Amino acid sequence: MAITMKAARVNAGFKQKDAAKALSVNAGTLSSWENGKTLPDLRQLAEMCELYGIEPNDIFLPRKSN
After folding, report:
1. Tens digits of per-residue pLDDT, 41-55?
2. DSSP letters of 14-63?
3. Residue 65 domain-assigned?
4. 3-class DSSP state for residue 6?
5. What was the pLDDT predicted at 1?
């Protein structure tokens, strides 16, 4: 079952600002990803999954909201 990006981050023990720093993005960008306003590119998604210790198929990607 897929989990949200926020749940993956929390399960991995990261605060949003710490995960953002590790992913070389600002916290606002990470927040936008987690809220479905924007989506990470494939490289960023792969880095996120590696950081959180999960597989890309484990992440639920919400549709971009208009």
Report:
1. 999 999 999 999 999
2. --HHHHHHHTTS-HHHHHHHHTTSS---HHHHHHHHHHHT--GGGEE-PP
3. no
4. helix
5. 67
Q: How many domains does the chain have?
A: 1
Burial class (CB in 10 A: 0-12, 13-18, 19+), 30: buried
**Which tens digits make up the pLDDT trace of 28-43?**
999 999 998 999 999 9
| Residue 60 is assigned to a structural domain of this protein | no
CATH code of 21's domain: 1.10.260.40
Residue 39 belongs to domain spanning: 3-55
Distance, CA of 45 to CA of 36 (rounded, Å): 13
> Is 39 part of any domain?
yes
Distances (CA, A) of 46 to 57, 58, 59, 60, 65: 11, 12, 11, 13, 22
Query: Quick check: pTM over 0.90?
Result: no
